[in-house]
Amino acid sequence: MAINSRIAKVEGVEDQKWYHGMRPRRDIEHLLIQDGDFLVRASDGRTNNVEIILSIRSETKGLIHLTLACTEGKWQLGLTSKGKKVHRFDTIPLLIEHYKKHKLSNSLILKRGVHRPDWLITHEKVTFDTKKDELGAGNFCTVYKGKYDKGDEQVVDVAVKLCHNSTKDSEDPNKSADEVRAAREMMLGEAKAMSHFVHQYVIQLYGVACDHPPVLIVMEYCPGGSLDKHLQKQGNDIEIGERLCYILEAARGMRYLHSRSCVHRDLAARNCLISAKGFIKISDFGLSKLLDGKAEEETVDEESPQIPLRWMAPESLKKPRKYSKASDVWSFAVLIYEVLNNGQKPWPDWPAKKIATHIRKCQMPDLADSTPAELKELVGKIWVQNSSDRPTFREICLKIWKVLKKVQPPKPNKFALNKLPGVERTITLRECNNDDDDTNRDSQDLPNNTNKSTMEDEKNAA
């Protein structure tokens, strides 16, 4: 994919800690706090050509965004006062150094360059073949299997989400440039959310390469694919004990996210991936929200939420729509239904209006006959009208662990997910203690499915 010619002329800027690439304006404004704070970024907000923007905090004028112009290979401020001498520079770093010593206007001078976060990486660290490595494609992005150089001679397999840079690149030629741009900003928002999370049951973000187009989001590669596809393919070959392991691992991932004030808003089997070690990983944070402070919910005025109807809680169907930790818990019960029904979604052939009516009345489908009674009881406590009456994920983890003590999972080599190419599960369950969510510590692996090694005391379940 060709890189825009204008951005390709920028020399030296991508090595600077104050260069933030193609991060949208709203993502960087809160970083500029004191008078003279500055950073440089790239934007195609006004045209399809990428522009270089100098963003500065002024004590008197607030935030200022200046376009840097390149004429005959020389860089200058895009707007200068009439009659004022125009200073031109071979590189942007030289321009920045000049205006650290000389005023831009009145009393404004560049003082402190705001550093980019560690999760912004360079394109050179990522390699993939667009012809051979494609894993999937959507309207606004294509996902490839690739390699990421972590440094210290560590190269790992990754999934690379390439954000389309124009309507020409998009799968849907009818999409406008604004729609493509909005989708890219949404993906950058997803990556920003993921940068806060490090947990064994949450997909890992390695970084975002956004110094120039195309923007690349680099994530942990899960060769097992999505949980729903695995359930649909293996069907009744999956023992109930193995299914309970899937459910517990997803619950542990969600318990961690809620401890980090993250509401996922799109929890479903399709958004759970299977790692190379055969563990369930929560993924797809495109619709997630970080709650402020100790807030438990967020009210959103959305005309048409993008969240699929079957997984929505009753309070999310009313206006104003409410999304909360409790609405994630509701969606989790739908995920339990999927896991126990071989990946089949509830009411597969029903019209949307009928589905919405049943959800509003809490008239949810029955679970499979093979479902343990304690799990049916748990789901019954989740699918209730009053969201404050639903259990938390900490309580859910404890309950599922107790069920697993009665329904022994199979030995690791008997797990059906070992049939997936590139997947090998060598332990039944990982021990996960109460304080793991607070420390980000990776818990110890449990070797196999003996009573002692697989089932610890209930106090360790959450």
UniProtKB/TrEMBL annotation:
GO terms for cellular component: endomembrane system. Residues 431-462 are annotated as: Disordered. Its main location: membrane. One of its GO terms (biological process) is axon development. SUPFAM superfamilies: Protein kinase-like (PK-like) (SSF56112), SH2 domain (SSF55550). Transmembrane segments: none annotated. Pfam families: PK_Tyr_Ser-Thr (PF07714), SH2 (PF00017). It is found in: Endomembrane system. It catalyses: L-tyrosyl-[protein] + ATP = O-phospho-L-tyrosyl-[protein] + ADP + H(+). Keywords: ATP-binding, Kinase, Membrane, Nucleotide-binding, SH2 domain, Transferase, Tyrosine-protein kinase. Its EC number is 2.7.10.2. InterPro entries: Fes/Fps/Fer_SH2, Kinase-like_dom_sf, Non-receptor_tyrosine_kinases, Prot_kinase_dom, Ser-Thr/Tyr_kinase_cat_dom, SH2, SH2_dom_sf, Tyr_kinase_AS. Residues 129-404 form the Protein kinase domain. It is an enzyme of class 2 (transferase). SMART domains: SH2, TyrKc. It comes from the Eukaryota. The keyword Nucleotide-binding applies. Belongs to the protein kinase superfamily. Tyr protein kinase family. This is Tyrosine-protein kinase. It comes from Caenorhabditis angaria.
